[in-house]
Amino acid sequence: MKKQWIASALCAVLLLSGCAAATSDPPGTGTPSASDPADPGDLPGADDPGKPAGPGHSGEQAGEPVGTGDPGTPAVTWKPSGIGYPLVPSDPSVEQKVAMLTFDDGPSDYTPEVLDRLKEAGVKAVFFITGYGAEQHPDLVRRIHEEGHVLGIHTMTHPDMTSLGREEQIAEIQPLIDLITDVAGEPPHYFRPPFGAYNDELLATLDELGLEAINWSNGSLDWDGVVEGYKDPNLVVEAVLDQLHPGSVILAHDTMKHTAEAVPLIIAALRERGYDFVVLP
After folding, report:
1. What is the model's pLDDT at position 72?
2. Over the stretch 90-129, which tens digit does the pLDDT of each residue have?
3. Dihedral-angle region of residue 107 (phi above 0 means left; psi in -120 to 50 means alpha; beta otherwise)
4. In the chain, what's the furthest Cα-to-Cα distance?
5. Enzyme catalytic residues
6. CA quadruple 52, 57, 63, 64: dihedral positive or negative?
7. Whole-number Å distance between alpha carbons of 62 and 74
8. Could you say which of 180, 194, 229, 233 would form a disulfide bridge with 262 (CB–CB 3.0 to 4.6 Å)?
9. What is the DSSP letter of 150?
C-alpha cells in the first residue's frame, strides 16, 4: 500500500512539471532578461521613425544635411536643380523650407564679423573666395574651412569669364583650386562666375576642372545703393525677404560692413518664417 502511494505521488509531480514547461514563453518573446536583451528600438530614447527629421528636429545643427532617423538611410542633401535655380532635396519626398547663405569676393576685413555672427547662430554658409582676398587674408581662408563652411571659387581677379579663352579661364581658377585643396585637404567642387556670367565655353572648362557652376536665386542687393561704403542693413534684409522662396540661394558679400551687420538679422527673419539653413554637400 505504501509503495502504491509513493508511485502515485511521483506521477503527480511529473505531470505538474510538464504543464509548467508547456506554458513558459518561447525563446525571443516575453519580458527581456539579462540573457535576452531588449531590441534597442523598444528602449526609452530610441529613434522614432514617425518623428520629423532635420535641423531643429533631429538634433542636427542648422546647415547640416538632413537625417531620417534611420542610420541605414543616407542624409538628405540640397543642391540647385540648375544654374541659378533654387535648392531641391536629394529625396523629393522631403518637405522642408530651407535657404542657403553664400558670400562672394572675400575674404576681407569684414569676414571675421560675418564668421562670428554665423557661429553665434549655428549656421553654415558657402564662401566663394577670390585670389586677391585670399592673398590678403590667408588665415581667414583657413578659418572659414575650420569652422565648417564650404569654400568655393570666385576667380583670382574677378573678370567676366565669358570674355576669356580656355587658358585664361584656367589661369583664373587653378591657383584657387590648389589653395583650397591645400587648406581643406580636398579639391573644391563649386564655382561662382563673376557677375553671374557664363557660357558653354566656361561650362566646358569647369567640367574639365571638376567644378560645378553655382549662381544665386535671391540677391541681397547689398551692393546696390551703397553711399560712402555703407548701406542700412535693414534694407539688405528687406531685399532678401522680398525675393524669399523655398530653396533660396542668397547672394551676399563678406566685403561690406553693412552685410556683416545684416547677417544676424537675415538669419532671425528667415527662422521666424520657418526656414532652416543648409549648405552644398
Report:
1. 57
2. 999 999 999 999 999 999 999 999 999 999 999 999 999 9
3. beta
4. 121
5. 104, 253
6. negative
7. 17
8. 233
9. E
